[in-house]
Amino acid sequence: MSSDDTVRGFSARSIETYSALTPDQGEAVLRLLGEAARVDGQQPVSEQGRLHLRGGSREGVSHLLLTVGDELVGYAQLEDTDPVEPPAAELVVHPVQRGHGHGRALGSALLAASGKRLRVWAHGGHPAARHLAQVLGLTLFRELRQMRRPLAGLELPEPVLPEGVSVRTFVPGKDDAAWLAVNAAAFAHHPEQGSLTQRDLDDRKAEPWFDPAGFFLAERRGELIGFHWTKTHAEEGLGEVYVLGVRPGEQGGGLGKALTTIGLRHLAAQQLPTAMLYVDADNTAAVTVYERLGFTVHETDLMYRTET
User: 300 near 144, Cβ under 8 Å?
Assistant: First the structure.
């Protein structure tokens, strides 16, 4: 148990830490996340974090459940898998239970669990999250932009592939190892994406949205050199530039632009009204490319960290 105290007007508040959640606990957390998303307008925990809620324990991942009496009112996830960067966390408090110090209690528990070396995501960058970061002594470290553009009436030129390059779609099982290797190389500077494992890939292949027909691989002489993995959010009417990567040494030749065009055309053919993507604000080259393709900022996720 991480903490146990009495909250004004409440039963005892407790925070317990688990390396894995039971199915019932996982469902309770998903309900909490769903209610927060409904009120806040975006998911409080990333896709990766939501995938970690099931399937047993995962190395370096822990779950903090904050309860008041028998009611789950807060959740935090701590992932300590990066060999260099401090552990990364996400946290959420049920909308009707906010304003009672639960967020601060979860944040303090995360600081204690990480040895006061911590990075925390604030999805949507809401004022309350910025205030909590200040209270916990965290400073702004990273800005991740969600950009969108309409797909209706999309007019893009024919993609021009570099000489000797062809594009086909992903074959589950056959292409896994090659894709993981190129993904790791393309995102060596990006701890969340570049560290994906076979288990992480399998998790995504098992999701209802997964469609290999929207997962494009670029090859030269049979060797994988780039990819564009698209994703559909059918309920929201969104098509996503999910992951786009080019192997180091193959960049700068127009492959990224061609793959982007191929993916956007695929999403438009699904009759989805809007395209979205995530990009780091300091990745000026990528931001410029997406702006030229008609993308504009829709919302921003902020990451805070302890001083190092």
Answer: yes
